[in-house]
Structure formats: C-alpha cells, structure tokens
Amino acid sequence: MRRATLGRIRFLAIAAVALVLAAGAAADGDPASDTLYQQNVYVPYPAPPPADVTALKHAVTHAYSRGYRVKVAVIATRIDLGAVPELFGKPDQYASFLGSELRGFYIGPLLIVMPAGFGIYDGGRPTAAEGRVLATMSVRGSTASALTETAAAAVTKLTADGALRSKDILAPVVYAVSSAGRRGSTVSIRLQMVDDSGRSRVTVRISAGSRQVAVIKTPLRPTDAFKLAIVKWTAPQTALRKLRFCAVASDGAGNKSRSSCAPLTLR
Predict the structure, then answer these.
(1) Please, are residues 29 and 83 in contact by the beta-carbon 8 Å criterion?
(2) pLDDT for 29
C-alpha cells in the first residue's frame, strides 16, 4: 500500500495516522471499507475501464470543490462485498453496514451503486433529499463499466441539486513529525493531516520549555494522510537548538483535532 521509497520517519507518521483512521474498518474483510478509509471511491474487481473510473473520481472531486462530501462504493458482484456477500442486491442495507464500518473516520453521505439499485447512508441521519434525486434515476446495467458510469451520473446530479448537504461533525487528525533546520533560515515543520472534508487548517505553536517562541496559522488547504504537510517558519539566529512544536488542526466546520507534539531541532 505504501511506496518503499518512503523514509522511516515518514512511514511511521503515515502508519500512525492510518491506524487512527482505519480503527475497526478492515477487521471483517470488507473491500470497500479497506479502500474508502483513504480514498473517496471504491470500484469493482475486476476494475472497469480507466475512463469510467476517472469520470467518477472527477464527479466526486467536483462535489468536494462545491463544499459537499461524498464517498462512493460501486458493487458489481458478491466478490466486492468480501465477508458480507449476503448483502448483494440489498444496496440500502449495505450502505448502512458500510457507513457503520467507516464511522471512525468518515461521517457523511455514502452512495452505493449495485445492479439492484442505489443505497444511500449518512451516519444515521435523514437522506430524504438524496433519495428524491436517486428516485429519478436508474442503473444503466450490471457490468462494472455501466455501474461506474451510473455512479458518476448520480454524484453529478446529487451535486447539481444540492442534495449532499450534510453537517460535518468529525474532527481532523493531525500527527506532528520530528523536524529540523538551521537557525536564521526557513525551517520546514512536518505534519501528517487528514479530514473527511478533504481540507483543514493548522495552528502550530513552537516553544522552548514553558516559553512560547512562535505561533503559525495556515489557511484551509487540501489534506492527504499519505503526504506530508509542510508549515514554513523562519527561525531566528538566536533560537535555541532544541525546541518543541505542537499542532492542532481544524476543518471548515470548526471541528478541532487533538494536539500533537514533536521535537524541532535547530543546528
């Protein structure tokens, strides 16, 4: 899952965030929950044509750019359900099941597309608006390609009709990664951050013992659990060699993470 070229520190940071996010998600061998803890789209196996997958991902990306959230699971056969094949043909039941599996790191609209139809779930909250939109649509076929095309069309229509409005109640996760730099130069402070809205801001506080040295605040920006986020700080010439920084992330809805701290060494 992770590239061998990742350094040890970065690997450990990624692993720490991933473990927080995936708590309980992969325990039952459900392929979609294993995928959706780090992505917004699950497509069937064998995979549909790349163009269909790209179209679906673009539709989801557009939804996020409009301030909405959605994750999508395209289920073509029982193979895609792993340990719960009995839910094939029952999209609403599977939506509820999968939503419960994802709850530790995502609470928002979850769209299921099966040959039998659509399923929609939003953390147990009402989905009448989404249901009304989906009731006007039909699944275009039972192949992986047809189902993925249907999913892209459904996300596009749900977005256009404003049916994906859902309160974001889940806080971001931030993990501070030990960082280093030179006094009198620009230092890269390293973080791992992720949020189910795909965007978060962070406040970094740098201290020397009980004395606060600096506070840095970033605007909202994209987050990715598998990419380091960098916060720049211009260290003064007189800064102590050994400092400590603590980070707190927040999303556009105002949800705040727990604080995470790490050493900051200046040479």
Answers:
(1) yes
(2) 65
